[in-house]
Structures are given as C-alpha cells and as structure tokens.
Amino acid sequence: MRNAPTILHLDMDAFYASVEQASKPSLRGKAVVVGGLGPRGVVATASYEARAFGVHSAMPMAQARRLAPNAAYLVPRFSLYRAVSEQVMTLLRELSPLVEPLSLDEAFVDLAASGAAEDAESARRTGLRLRADIRTVTGLTGSVGLAASKMLAKIASEQAKPDGLVLIEPGTERALLGPLPVRTLPGVGPATGDHLRRAGITTVEELAEAGEDELVRLLGKAHGQALYAMALARDERPVVAEREAKSVSVEDTYDVDIHDRLRIGLEVRRLADRCVRRLREAGLSGRTIVLKVRRYDFSTLTRSETLRGPTDDPAVVREAAERLLESVDTMGGVRLLGVGVSGLADYTQEDLFAQASSRAEPAPEEAVAEPVAVPREPVLPHWRAGQDVRHAEHGHGWVQGSGVGRVTVRFETPQSPPGRIRTFLVTDPALEPADPLPLVVTAPAP
User: Which end of the chain has a smaller Cβ tally under 10 Å, C or N?
Assistant: First the structure.
C-alpha cells in the first residue's frame, strides 16, 4: 500500500443522462431515462431526478415507466457519448501516462507516475482542478475519489457522488471500511452477500473479524483470501494503462421477434455497416467476422469466419456476415442480432478489397436466375425519441415522440434556451436525421 492518496478514481455523474440534459435545455433538472425504449428494453442510465422515483440502471424499461411515467425516455446516442468520453480521457492523460479506463465514464489514474501528486494536499488540488477542467470542457460533472489503493479510490468516488471529491487519508482506511456493508467490496455480488449474511456477516468489520480461515471455508480459497485482504484495506493492484480493444461489435434487440428472412438479412447488413463505421472511427481493421443471433427461445448462437487478413471494407464484412447467417436457423423468430469484428489491427490488407466483388461475380458456367421483382410497401422513416434531426426551416432539434404518421420535434441546441415544439408528418421532406451538436462551443483562438 502507498503512503499517499495518489490513486484517483473518476466517475462521471449519471453520464448518459447528464449528456442528454446538457444537450437538451428543456430537460435540465427533469427526470431523464436513457435505454432501450421497447417492451424488452432496459435502463442504461437514469438522471438523479429519475433515481428519486426508484429508477436505476439495468431495470426493465417497463418497470421504469411505471415508477416515473412523466420522465423523458430517450434512446442512447453512443457516438456523442464516445466523443464526450474522449474529451474526459484526454484530460486524464494530461495528468498521467497511467490511465486505466473502466468504461466510457469511469477510469483510474496513477498520479504518482507523473508527479502530479505526492501527498494528500497535492492530490486534493489535482482532483479539484480535474473536476473544474471537466466542467469547462464538457459542461458535465464528475465525482473524484482519492486514496492509496484502487479499491479505496473507487469507494471514495462513490461516497463523493454527485459532483464531489472524497479523499481517504492513509491510516484511516480500516475505520472507514468497518461499518460499510460487505456489498461495498468488489467481488461481493448478491449471491456472495446472501451467503455471508446467512453466516452472520453483514459489514466489512465483521468480515475482518471472521478471519481468513473462516472466509476460505465459506467461500473457497481464492475468494476467501481476496475478501479478507480487502476487509483489511489491503489492495496492491497497480493502475494499468488502457488495453487495446480486442473486438468491435454492435447489436440490436427487437421489440417484436423478426421472422421474415429477408428482413433479417437486411438487419445483418445494416449492423455490418455500423460495425465498420466504428472500426474506421477507431482507425482499426480486423480479420475475424462474428455473427450473433438470439432466437425466440433465448438460445444464442454465434458464428465466425476468419479472413486472409485484416479489413475495414464494409462490403467484405457484409458478405461474411451474410454467409454466416446462411448457417443459422431463424424459422422460429429472432429477438437479437449482432455483428462484430475481432483479430484487430491498425492496418488493412489491400487485396481483401477485391474479395467482395470477386465473390459476387458468378463463374461463367453458372446459370443465374433472373431476379423476380416483388412489390413492397414503402418504408416510412423511423423517428426515435431523443434522436437528432434538422429541419430546413426550423434548424436543429430532437425527436420527442412519434406515432400515427406524425413526429413531434423540439427545436433547441445545447447553447439555446428551451425550444419550441412542432409536429410534422413522418414523411416531411424538410426533416432529416442530423449529427449531435457539441455540448460546449470553444471560442476560436485569436
């Protein structure tokens, strides 16, 4: 253990929901819930105003709607969340070369690795400056925990929420941990917590008093020894610089099972294109294409194909995903589809670019059936709550809701006052999807 609180844990406050509130002035101070909006959707993040009604992450969306019927329910906008996250991670990397992201909104930083902090006072100043910089750059708030270990820094940031800073002085760890519930410690989930409760252990102090031998008997050697060490505030895990991504993937869960094979194929192509866009945004390519299919009975199948070399060609990824789909029985219906790419590299193999076209051309001796034209109903635009749009006359806005051939849009930007609401036909040619606007506009340098 260190003798100074030089490990920092940052946790952005209700990140997705806070981004939505910062982006939409009319939702500031209101209950906001972000997640899948269909009957099978779950809550990704709830604003603190929504949490007051009992809404929390991973809750079924239907339950959230019962608890907070007047909240704003929005689809996630991951491209914006990733962009804001990168702004925050850039600020962290300016503090230290050792930054360990845990998710888009959470990371550990080793302040001693760069000399950014040497004692409690300098660590506190660094944490306060970081929070101020995050607010300036993104307009959002984050909570900071400072301690001599990763476990304690994370506990401190949880105690600091929302929009606060907690520093745990070395030597005070046992007194702080003692009265906390055992579920506070990493690795103690509901099952382990219930097992310990049945043994009469409900607090960290009781965990320490039970002794290592008793915990090993209750939980097994590895888990018991690890929990005993944590109960004594022992945590020697280093901050590990961010690891390279092992795969890039996208998936969608459908409100109603898809049975039409043609529709399933179109969804797979669309997912493949989204996956390639994420690959290219990250400057990556990959060799192995993976298809994920969850069927009507919740059985999940994965199929993969490894190419000769890495690619970021959408046609190649689409074709591979479609070939994989051919081996999957979807007769009973499909509730989830996903496409991923693994075996990542930061380059592409040029000869793969010809793969799609060469596969698409039939050999000369093959007989090709004449395509049969099938009349189809026109596909109406699908507007989702929270989606960015632009109107030729009214400018930038976001979808508040849609149905019965109408779409309701509120026209406002992150820098404007709450905007006006207007309703259009879903087919209005003046309305089109738009990219998210930055939360904070930086003044150009003189």
Answer: C
- pTM: predicted TM-score of the whole model, two decimal places: 0.75
Task: Decide if 243 contacts 223 (C-beta within 8 A).
Answer: no
Cα–Cα distance, 229 to 218 (Å, whole number): 15
Binding-site positions read: 11, 105
**Cβ within 8 Å of residue 332, ≥6 positions away:** 257, 259, 295, 296, 297
Give the catalytic positions in this structure. 106
Q: Which one-letter DSSP state was computed for residue 242?
A: P
Half-sphere CA count of 300, side-chain side, radius 13 A: 8
383/210 Cα distance (integer angstroms): 57
Start-to-end CA distance of the chain, whole Å, equals 48
Would you say 113 and 96 are in contact if contact means Cβ atoms under 8 Å apart? yes
pLDDT of the residue at 16: 96
3-state helix, strand, coil in the chain (%, to 5): 35, 25, 40
Known binding site for Mg(2+): residues?
A: 11, 105
